[in-house]
Amino acid sequence: MSAPCSLIDEYLPQFDVVERHATVVRAAPARVWSVLRTADFGRSLLVAALLGVRGLGRKRVTLTLETMLAGGRFVQLDERPGRELLIGLEGRFWRPRPDLRTTDARRFREPLDPGLARAAWDFRLEPLGEETTRLSTETRVCCAAAPARRRFRPYWLLVRPGSGLIRRAMLGAIRRAAEGPDETRKKPPT
Fold first, then answer.
1. How far apart are the first and last CA of the chain?
2. How far from 68 is each of 41, 88, 134, 190, CA to CA, in Å?
3. Could you report the per-residue pLDDT of 45-59, keeping only the tens digit for each?
């Protein structure tokens, strides 16, 4: 029996760019999953600075996957509870004021309108033992056609280093939350 396809493979099998990062967490997959959406990666000064440049940063607020999804830029496309979470966005996000389109799981799989791009971003948990988990994230972007690709490429060259730093900071925040004591995870953000 072959392993099932990842959600990102199902939703965005063809792409123009990809970025992957992973970390090993000394916690059971269930514990990692329990903090995945609520681990605060906005505490990092680097993340705050990078998001501030992009216009996403404000005063110090809790920045989690949950707050990102509530902000409306990203939408949850699918999940396999305890194993995978897939989020995405669609539009012209390379513009100074991103032109984002409303999307959902059904629309995300339909043909992409010319001039637009899609980004899919997943988080996957792989058990490495009872108390160890490999946590990975992959980001893929697919442009509808050559004109969108030409506009997207310079943007990607500019933001890719910061994008990678943000993703590594997120993985680190999730790892620290999962490996930390229970009472640390239950305290409301300050």
1. 48
2. 11, 11, 23, 18
3. 776 666 655 455 455
